[in-house]
Amino acid sequence: MTASRQIRFWLIGAAAAGLLVWLLRDMLLPFVAGLAIAYFLNPLTDRIEKLVRSRTLATVILVIIATLVGVGLLLAIAPLVSDQLATLARKLPEYTTRLYARLLPLLQTLQERFGIDAAGAKDFESVLAARAGDALRFVGAVLGSVVTSGFALVNLLALLFLTPVIAFYLMRDWPKLVATVDGYLPRAHADTIRGLMRDANTAVAGYVRGQATVCLVLAFYYGTALALVGLDFGLIIGIIIGLISFIPYVGSFTGGVLAIGMALAQFPPDWLSVGKVVAVFAVGQFLEGNVLAPKLVGDSIGIHPVWLMFALLAGGTLFGFVGLLLSVPVAAVAGVLVRFALREYRDSAYYRGTTERVLLDTDHP
């Protein structure tokens, strides 16, 4: 088979796989979640297997422990989270109005300083109020449809009951799956593909496992700290901040707006409490940027934050929540392939303008 036919074959296969994922995106969540859990826990499964001398027993022990921990956490925080969510949905218009009233003097000061006419400011306020109302109605409609949708209920039940089963079988059979995939690699390029997959595994494992740990630590920190300083809905806001912190810059900005905006709506004229919320958020950002992320994540993924945000947005737009889960691993693998292609290009006659092939410094470890 010629090189052009091989390239055409793999491109058609990749396009077919992408189309299949897009068509089945609404039912893939339990499988993707199970794969993520199995991938995340596989190193721990390997360690337990060395102690008990059985892959199946090691998987059973780990699944039982993970299930008990997950159920315990769910039972501990689910009542508080559901109560805060219901109260927040009911009081959100009131808090929005209160925050707008407190920011109005600042808006008027800016209006006078920059010479904005009163009629234009009034029009802007009317439009802003209308858009805020539309946004609240839209969020309410989306939440209502998610809760009442029969298909969403089926997905939720599938996620709760199928994900542990899928994760169990994947963890138990992980070495067999790897060996099977390796057996189907084209023999002429098997060593090259194995090297690429090792690089991709290093990038994905370093980012996914590290970033998941960062998100969990931040969710615990923000939820506990914001609740202790007395912020209304501090627990749910802290959990949201922690969970969205995997999005570079956007997660931090959104978390700051949520926490500080709620503090401005609740506490003034008690500005000391507002300062406490700001301090909690500042400490969290310092820990994330200078302690957690460098130690647990580092530069393992090798992708610029802008491209990472693009991958997250593109994955979410095309494939929904499943796309969000897959976007970072796909971006990591794509980054490995692109760097390999660039090395091959620089070592080719197309780049050098000669028929000689040389060994570049980048080829050395």
C-alpha Rg, in Å?
Answer: 25 Å
Count of alpha and pi helical runs: 12
Topology, number of strands: 0
What structural category characterises the helix and strand content?
mainly alpha
- As residue ranges, the low-confidence spans are 142-151
C-alpha geometry: globular
Report the average pLDDT across residues.
75
**Could you give the order of the helices and strands?**
HHHHHHHHHHHH
Layout of SSEs?
Layout: H1 3-23, H2 29-52, H3 55-113, H4 118-148, H5 150-172, H6 174-183, H7 190-228, H8 234-243, H9 250-266, H10 271-297, H11 305-346, H12 349-352
Structure description:
The structure is a single chain. By secondary structure, the protein is mostly helical. The protein has a domain at about 25-185. The chain is about 85% helix and about 0% strand. The protein is built from twelve helices and no strands. Helix 3 crosses helix 5, helix 7 runs antiparallel to helix 11 (about 305-345) and helix 8 runs antiparallel to helix 9. The radius of gyration is 25 Å and the shape is globular.
Briefly summarize what is shown:
By secondary structure, the protein is mostly helical.
Features:
single chain, 365 residues, mainly alpha, 12 helices, 84% helix, globular
